[in-house]
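Self-study notes.
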Amino acid sequence: MDYQKIKSIIVLGIQDYFKKNNFQKAVIGLSGGIDSTVAAYLTVEALGNENVTALFMPEYTTSKQSHDDAHEVAKRLKIQAITIEIHQVTDFFKGLNKKFSCKSEIPLANSKARARMMILYYYANVENALVIGTSDKSETMLGYATKFGDSAADIEPIGELWKTDLIEFGKFLKVPESITSKKPSPELMEGKTADSELGAAYDVLDKILKLHFEEKLNADEIIKKGFDKTLVGNIFERIKLNEHKRKMPPVIGIPVRYF
């Protein structure tokens, strides 16, 4: 990968989008993970640190490591970092879990991502800013994101980068080693990492995703290349089930003659 060229393309893309839409300020949810870190680095390069604000929004499942990493990134980039705890939001939805007799962890986990996006857009409205997205291509293709949560944004600077490529890109940008070396985790559920939820590490997942989306191979063709049959089947099933996350909500068409 030509990291310098990729950096230039993304930075120019951010600058062009903000200029065309008459915005100067940006806000980003900084989690301490590789995605938001790289997105923050590129946004600061594009807009200047005086125009970028980071919101760190911890709750019960947020680790101290994430806190330390997020604030280290803000310190290095010399951007304003505002901490907004969302424990009360989590507690509210825990109450709804009991009211609705919900046994699954997923609704509560998704509520955290959506709460964070509401706060980001509230801040964006207050400061006349745009929200920077932090979704990479691996997450998007797998649908490993919360609809109208962490998948909601005004612009997605790193949306064309696979997770494994993004980690290497992070090293090129000289982000903290503690971020590039740790296992990815959305920290929405206690003790859950991306590996455990997706069934494999990203270095394996990305190989399968690239074979499918870039080389247009089907599941059987990928399995013949030596990948585990069950894993490939699960990935293809996930891609199919989450296809709706990669599209805008459909509009039901009505013929003109009925108006």
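Second protein, same conventions, sequence then structure:
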Amino acid sequence: MKMEPNSSLDTQVGGSHYQMGGIQPIEYIHANNLSFIEGSIVKYISRWRNKNGVEDLEKIKHYIDLLIELEDNVGNRKK
């Protein structure tokens, strides 16, 4: 009987905080073709209770501020 290799999704380096939900953040990010910033927000919101607590919420806030600033700059260039 040939053994199939485990999926990369079965392995997490540095903990199991991403494997605690029904779908891993990377699967959602990839399936929805999210940008780096959007993906980071999904990643941090998915893990904050099980990893870094409020520090991850602060990271989310920072990424949202960055996204707003970048989108505002894109909008200003179109005018």
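Instructor comment on the second fold: The two ends are 64 Å apart (CA to CA).
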